[in-house]
Write a structure and sequence with these properties.
- This protein is an alpha+beta fold.
- It has one domain: Pnp Oxidase, Chain A (Roll).
- About 30% of the residues are buried.
Length: about 180
């Protein structure tokens, strides 16, 4: 899927400026559930050879959204925004993608994504790799497949849309705890 370099650059710039996104999940027998999560921006392109933006986050698999996600891949929605009282300064993005449990990824990819997350949020090392027991949280990876970038600095209501092929259709996913 070809991409306008400016559009992808604007997306990655905005994602790198923030560190919390709202993740929307859903279970078939429940109402949608939204939760704020710390994230790190990354690219899956080194393993795919094409543009493949992703967000990495840590969370408890036992949380409501963690149970909705399971091992994945699971379709989700999300939002990142830069709030302002000046309407002309508002910008943000809405996104869709699919999330997988980091344990399903090949070790090389999993280690690189964990490094990206811990570089952005070093305090998370305590919950991802505690010295005194099993981890309370697991790493999850959201491969972005669709994004609408809104930027009122260009003009009120200005938005651009980008789409990306689903990375999980191309990468080898393992069962959690498998090889």
């Amino acid at each position: 899927m070809p991409h306008d370099a400016h559009r992808v650059s604007a997306l990655m710039t905005l994602l790198r400026e923030r560190w919390v996104f709202a993740l929307a999940t859903n279970a078939l027998d429940q109402a949608p559930y939204v939760t704020p999560l710390f994230y790190a921006t990354t690219e899956l392109s080194p393993w795919l050879g094409r543009v493949a933006p992703a967000l990495v986050f840590a969370s408890s698999p036992r949380s409501t959204h963690g149970r909705h996600l399971g091992a994945g891949p699971v379709a989700v929605g999300g939002a990142v925004y830069l709030e302002s009282e000046a309407i002309g300064a508002l910008r943000g993005l809405q996104l869709r993608g699919r999330v997988v449990l980091g344990a399903r990824l090949p070790a090389e990819i999993r280690r690189a994504l964990e490094r990206a997350y811990l570089d952005r949020h070093p305090v998370a090392a305590r919950v991802l790799a505690p010295a005194d027991g099993p981890p309370a949280h697991a790493l999850f990876v959201l491969a972005i497949t669709w994004v609408k970038l809104t930027d009122n600095r260009v003009r009120f209501g200005h938005h651009e849309i980008a789409e990306f092929a689903d990375a999980w259709d191309e990468l080898d996913l393992h069962e959690p705890g498998g090889t």
